[in-house]
Amino acid sequence: MTAERIIRDRSKQRSADHHPLALRRRSTLGALHRLTARRPFAVAYALVLLVVALVSGVVSGPARDIRLLFGTGYESVIEGGHWWSPLTSVFFVDNGAELVLVLAGAIIILGFTERMMGTRRTVIAFLSTSILGATIGLGVQYLGVAGGEMWSRGVSELWAIDPFTPIFGSAMAASYFAGPLWRRRIRVLGLSTVLVLVLYSGQPSDLYRLLAVAIGLGTGWLFRPPRRVTSWRRSSDHETRTLLAAIVGMVAVGPAITIYSGARFGLLAPLGLLLTQDRPTAGEFVDRCLLGDVTRQCVQELSLERIGGAGPVLVSLLPLLTLIVAAFGLARGRRFAAWLAITINTGLALLAAWYYGLLPISGQPYVWQWQSGRYWEVTLILVVSVLVPLVVALVIFGNLRRFPVASRTGQRRRFLLVTVGSLAALITFYIGVGWLLRDHFRPAVGLLDLLVDVPERFIPVGFLRLERVSFLPIDPLATALYHGVGAAFWIVVFVGTIVCLRSASVDPTADAPGRLRTLLSAHGGGSLGFMTTWTGNSLWFTASGRTAIAYRVVNGIAITTSEPVGPSSEASDAVTSFACMCDDRGWVAVFYGLHERWNLVFDTMGWHTMQVGEETLLRPSSWSTTGKKWQDIRSSINRADRAGVRALWTSYRALSLAATTQIAEISEQWVQEKELPELGFTLGGLDELRDPAVRLMLAVDSADRVQAVTSWLPTYRDGAIVGWTLDFMRRRPDSINGVMEFLIAQTAELMQESAQIEFLSLSIAPLAQSAGLRQGGVADRLLDYLGRSLEPVYGFRSLLVFKRKFQPEFAPVFMAFPDPVALPEIGLALARAYLPSLSVRDVVTLLRGHGQ
Fold it and tell me: Is residue 351 part of a domain?
C-alpha cells in the first residue's frame, strides 16, 4: 500500500506539474529570470522606481518636502546646497501615468542599452548623463540668473524629477553599438524628441535631458567598438521617408506637449496656449499690451485675447492635424503629402516672419533693437518660431525625389481648385457680411478695417501674438463670423487632404491595381510580370480591358515595366495602341524587359530591338547538385548545416516584429555600403516585400537571427503559380560565406517537390550581359558605359557571374524602340528609372568612380 501511495502521489505531482496554470507560471518565471539575467541593471532600476513610487505616492507623486529634498534645480543646488539631487532626482516620478511610461522605458530602452553595450558601460553612461546633464544645465541657469536672462529667472524656482534624462542619454551612448538602421533611428528620433520638448515645454528637466543626450553621444564615442562606422552614411528611401514622417509628426504635436507638461517656458510654448480654455475678458489687455511693451505676460495675454471659442482653436489646431495626416502620407511615399508639408511649414514660417516683425516692411522696429537686453529674448523666440517650420520645409524639399507616389490623375488639381475657391469665397463672405454687421464690433469697423483683418482670420493665433488687436466682436452673430471663416477654411483643407491621400494612385481608375492582378493571375505576364504591380508604375489598359501595360514616364520616355499582361491574341494590337497613346502625349514608347518571343511583334511594326540583359533560369524538375561544377553550391549547403543555419520559406506578414526589424537592418546596412542611392524600377526594396503574394526565403541561425533574405515573385497561369522570380537579395556583412548560394539551392529543392512549378528565375542583372552578345551600336555602347560606371557600386556583372554557379539556362532580354535617334535620351531615361533619387552629387560620384 505504501508503494502504491507513493506512486499515486508522484502521479498527482506530475499531473500538477503539467497543469496549464503550472506550466504558465513556470514559463512566466523563466521569462523573468532570463530578463533579469540579461538586463540586471535595467530590471534593478525599474524595481527601484516602483518601490520609490509606492513609498512616496503613486497617484499624485511625491510630497512637496520629498521633492524639495531629492529634486534638482537652481534653488535646490545653487541656493539650497543639495549637491546630491542631480542623481537622486532620477529615481522619482511625477504621477502614476509617468510611472507606467518610465517603467516601460527602463525595461525596453535601458534594457536595449544594456544588451547592446553591456552592464558596466550602461551603468557608467547612466550615471554620467544624469549627473553631468543636470550639473551643466545648472551651470547654464546660474549664468543666466546672474546675467538677468528671462528664462533662467523664470524657471529658477522649479524643482525637476526626471528618470528619462539618464534613459535618453544611455540610449544615445548605445547607438554606437547598434547597426546602421537603429543607430540612425535612435539618434534622429531621440534628438528630435528632446528638441521638441525643449522648444515647447522648456522646463529645466528638458534642458538637462538635452544635455544628457549630448553627453551620451560623447560617452558612446569613447566606448565605441573597434571598426565601427561612426560617420553618417546614406539611408534608403524607405528609411528616409520614415524618419522625415516622424520628425514632421513630432513637430506637429508640439503644442500638445505644452498642455501635458503644464509648462509655458519653451521658445515655442505660446503655441500650446492655443489649446487652453482660460482667457481674459475681451479688451482687458488690448490697450495695455502696446507694441513697445513686449513682455512674456503681454505675449501670453495677446494670444489668449484672440481665443473666443471653438473657431480660433480649430484654426490653430487643424493645420497641425493636417501636418500629422501629411506625416502618414510621407511615410508611404506620397508626393502630395510632401508638397503639403512643404507648403504649410513654409506658409507658417513666412507668416511668422511677417507678423513677428522679422521682415523689414512689416514696420516693427523694436525687434531690431539688438543692444537692448529687454528685447533680445523675445527676438530669439520669434526667430526660432520662424526657423523651425522653415527648416522642416527645406529638409523635405531636399528629399522630394524620395516621394515617388503620385495622386490619382486630376486629384491634386481638384484639391487646389477647391482650396483656393473656398478661400476666395470665405474672404468675400467675411468682408460682405462683416460690413453689414459693422456696428457689431468694438470699435465699429469700416470696409478697409475688414480687408486688412482678413489674413488674421485664417492664421493660427500663435503667430499673431504680437499683433495689435484692432477690433473685437461684441455679440454671438459677429463672433461666429469673426471666428468661423478661418475654421471653415481649414476644415476644407483637412478633409481635402485626407481625400487626396486616400486616393493616391497613378491610374485614373481606383480599381486598376486589382484589375492588373486579375490579368496576372490569368495570363502571367512572363517571369518579370509581377513587377508591374509595384508602386511608381502607371497602368494603361486596352479598350477591351483584357491587356494591361505598366510604364513609367522619365524625361518624355515612356518605359514599360516588363511585357504587356494579357492574352497573346491581343499582343500586337495592345502594343500598337499603347504606342499611339504615347505618341499623342508626346512621349517616346520604349518596351523594356521583353523576352525573345516578342521580337516578331516589333519586327512586324518596323521597330528596333536590342538586348539589354540575360535572364537566368533554373528548372526544379531537373535540379541536381551532383558533379564537379556544383562543388561551390554543395560546400555552401554543408557550411550552413555546420553553422546551424536553416532555410525558412515564409511571407513578410507571417514574420515576427523582431524578424522584420532584422530584415530592415540588413537592408539598411546594404544601402549604406553603396556610394549611390538605392536602385528602383525592376529592382525591389523593402516596400515590395510586404506584398502578401511575395514569398521570402530566409537564412536563420540557431539563435533565430536572420542572416540573409531573398524574396520571390510569383508567375501565374490560369490562376496557379507556375514559377518564382528572385528579386530582393540582402545578407549580413558577418554572415557565413555562401549563404546566398545556400538560400537559392534550398528554394530550388523546395520547388522540386511541387510538380506545377516549371521554373525558378534568378532574374536579370540590369545593364550586364555576356561580352559575346553585345551588338556594338550607339545605344549598346551607352548602356555598356552605364553598366561599367555602376559596376563598382552595384556589381551587376559580378551578379551575373554569381548566377552562373547554378548552371542556369540563359534567356536574352530585349528592349524595343521606334527610332534609333532617341537612343541617347532612352539611355539617360533608363539610368534615371533605375536611380530615381539620383542627385547632382551622385552623378559626380558616378563619373569620378568611372574615371578611376
Answer: yes
227 and 91 in a common domain: yes
Q: What is the CATH number of the domain that holds 625?
A: 3.40.630.30
By DSSP bridging, strand 720-731 and strand 759-764 are: parallel
Distance between CA 826 and CA 847 in Å, rounded?
Answer: 19
Q: Tally DSSP H helices, then E strands, for the chain.
A: 32, 13
Please give the mean pLDDT across all residues of the chain.
Answer: 77
Shared domain check, 119 and 108: yes
Yes or no: say if 294 and 366 are a contact pair by the CB < 8 Å rule.
yes
Q: Which pLDDT belongs to residue 611?
A: 84
Distance, in Å, from the CA atom of 591 to the CA atom of 595, rounded to the nearest integer, reads 11
Q: Does residue 179 carry a pLDDT above 50?
A: yes
**pLDDT for residue 434:** 84
* Separation CA 846–CA 813 (nearest Å): 25
Residue 398 inside a domain? The answer is yes
Please list, residue by residue across 473-512, b when 16 or more beta carbons sit within 10 angstroms of its beta carbon and e when fewer do: bbeeebbbbbbbbbbbbbebbbebbeebbebbbbbeeeeb
How many independent structural domains does the chain possess?
Answer: 3
241 and 225 inside one domain: no
- Which residue has 484692432 as its cell numbers? 470
Full residue range of the structural domain in which residue 676 is found: 618-764
pTM of the model: 0.57
Rounded CA separation 26/580 (Å): 71
781-836 pLDDT per residue, tens:
555 555 555 554 455 566 777 788 888 888 888 889 887 777 778 877 887 787 76
- Residue 811, domain member (yes or no): no
pLDDT of residue 7: 44
Residues 228 and 245 in one domain: no
d(C-alpha 270, C-alpha 316), whole Å: 12
Residues 287 and 433 in one domain: yes
Phi, psi of 159 (to 5 degrees): -115, 125
**834's grid cell:** 533605375
pLDDT-wise least confident of 120-134, 325-339, 364-378 = 364-378
Q: What CATH number has the domain bearing residue 27?
A: 1.20.1540
Give the Cα separation of 300 and 306 in Å (integer).
Answer: 11
Buried b (16+ CB within 10 A) or exposed e, 348-362: bbbbbbbbbbbeeee
Model confidence at 371, pLDDT cuts 50, 70, 90, reads very low
User: Among 730, 764, 798, where does a domain finish?
Assistant: 764
Q: What is the DSSP string of 670-735?
A: HHHT-SSPPP-TTS--HHHHT-TT-EEEEEE-TTS-EEEEEEEEEEEETTEEEEEEEEEEEE-TTS
Q: Quick check: is 539 in a domain?
A: no
Q: Are residues 48 and 189 in the same domain?
A: yes
154 and 251 belong to one structural domain: no
**DSSP conformation class of 201:** T
The one-letter amino acid at 3: A
**Which of 81-90, 311-320, 604-613, 647-656 holds the top average pLDDT?**
647-656
Longest dimension (CA), the chain: 110
Instruction: Say if residue 362's pLDDT is above 50.
Output: no
DSSP conformation letters of 629-682 = GGHHHHHHHHHHHHTT-EEEEE-GGGS-HHHHHHHHHHHHHHHHT-SSPPP-TT
227 lies in the same domain as 252: no
Q: Per-residue pLDDT averaged across 202-231, rounded? A: 79
Which of 504, 537, 561 represents a domain boundary (last residue)? 504
Q: What is the pLDDT of residue 289?
A: 45
